[in-house]
Amino acid sequence: MSRALRVWLALIVLVLAATDAAAAEHRKVVILHSVGPEFRPWNEYAKQIRAELERLSPWTLDVREYSLESARSGDANSEPSFVQYLNALYADHVPNLVVAIGAPAAAFFRRHREHLFPKTPALFTAIDQRRINYSDITDYDALVAVKNDFRFLFESFLRISPDTRVVAVVNGNSPNELFWRKEIQKELKPLENQIDIRWYDNLSFLDIVKETASLPPHSAIFWNTMVVDSTGVAYEGDRALTTLYGTANAPIFSHDDSFFGQEIVGGPMLSARKLSEEAGAVAVRLLEGEKPSSIRVEPVGFAKPIYDWRQLQRWGINGSRLPPDSEVYFRERTAWETYRWQIVLVVGVLLIQTALISGLSFERRRRLHAEVQSRQRMSELARVNRFSTAGVLTASIAHEINQPLGALRANAETIQLMMESATPDMDEIREIVTDIRRDEERASAVILRLRSLLKKTPFEIRDIDFNDVVRGTIDLVAGVATARQVEFGSSLSAVPLPVKGDPIQLQQVILNLIVNAMDATSDLPAGKRRVSIWTTYKDKSAEASIADCGPGIPPDDLKRVFDPLFTTKAGGMGMGLSIARTIIEAHRGKLSAENPPDGGALFRIELPLNAAAD
Known about the structure:
Elements: H1 3-24, E1 26-33, H2 42-56, E2 60-67, H3 79-89, E3 97-101, H4 103-112, E4 122-128, E5 141-146, H5 150-160, E6 166-170, H6 175-187, E7 196-199, H7 205-213, E8 219-223, H8 239-247, E9 252-254, E10 266-267, H9 272-287, E11 306-308, H10 309-314, E12 327-329, H11 335-338, H12 340-359, H13 361-378, H14 386-419, H15 426-454, E13 462-465, H16 466-483, E14 487-491, E15 498-501, H17 503-520, E16 530-538, E17 541-548, H18 576-586, E18 590-594, E19 602-608
Parallel strand pairs: 1-2, 1-3, 3-4, 4-5, 6-7, 6-8, 8-9, 11-12, 14-16
Antiparallel strand pairs: 10-11, 13-15, 16-17, 17-19, 18-19
Helix pairs in contact: 2-9, 7-8, 14-15, 14-16, 14-17, 16-17, 17-18
């Protein structure tokens, strides 16, 4: 092996060894949480600080997180055991950096630094400058503090919602939260003559939810934190704020954008991103060996205002009142912004269609005339099974016609008595004659509908609108439904349902199903008899559904209900449904029956849309 080759191999070995040594180098970081790893906003700070550390750090990081649970209640009896636990974990490998998130965690570490890691650099962050006793800060401590201005925050909200008269403050009952109740109350002293500030930290969270659900008009809610309520119940994650938002009858604003994105209106707030950038940069400097006491960072204040467009819309807050430097998130784009080119294309197509329609106006008039003729023929009934159906309807129609006939008889007798009088009242006689004419017209209308039912017409397949067939049948049975004291509801598709078929035969099928539905409700008391019919457009087919509130079809009979000679009626022939299915299948459609979950029976007619519509 040549000397040059040996030199190159030696260099490669040295480079690989240096690379392995650099890869093996890592830093241990301990993060102390004040109340727990899942409490907002501190969990958001911790998550973003970790992400910033990973982004900036040239080393492999071993990050471990621990929670100071005693901060929820203020009971310090558990702290010695926690200190012993941390000492046992790090007896042989002291961390390179301690990051305390929040004032309780920072105070705990300062109290026990001598028994924990006396020479380890510490970074205290997410702490308001009012919670810092600068005389306790050692040469091993670095600060990235925050600066809250609650009066400015409240005044900013009042500028965008000037009608606000009541502000409910939602704050927990932990020692840290009670400290902030006093501080916020002190800052808001000048606003007490302008708004009614209500405090709920002495209530359970469930009672707070009830109070904020019934606030008077022109109210707002300030969300500070809810770590522990007055009953000692802890609220981690998003549960408390989400619950409050679900029932609150007023807009919610807060001091920290960690709560922003769903429930909060917005405004000037602390920025978790900005704080994490500052804290992450300081943490890397400490890990590089820079002296903590030489690092000075100005407290992080409110970022420029941000607002949730959805919440502004929900609570009717005028966007023109927002500060000029504010940003609005989640704004819904206008139709023109979203579909500009599509709108231009549609307008162009419409202009072309307008030109074509104007040239085809004569053809359009002919089509309208054909539709009028079609609707007239749809009022006739098919001959199939007409006698059994007519017999059922005739009994009800006879009951309906007796009313105008009885009125005619009474009026005639009254005129006769008046004419026998020596001085008959002619004005009253004229009124009676008018009543007789009206009753005669009512009786004639009933007779005309019955004649239409029995009229014989030839079978004819043509293009029809299924909605028109259903509408004609509804007009036919309306009087019968009234006589039987059946509540009859209908809802027709808003779009045409063009099919090919014989309107008379289809009308007979629908009539048969409606009469069956009325029969099914006959045993129910008046006022509870209901029959419904509706039409829908569904996946290349037209549907008509007829439902009743009767006892339904026995499950064992559902498969046989359309069989010839099968019937569930005491006097039924068992042919009506069989003929109805035959007619629908001749139209290339489907007739089915089912029992809906809410009771009764439902029959569904499905007909294919004609080729042109499809």
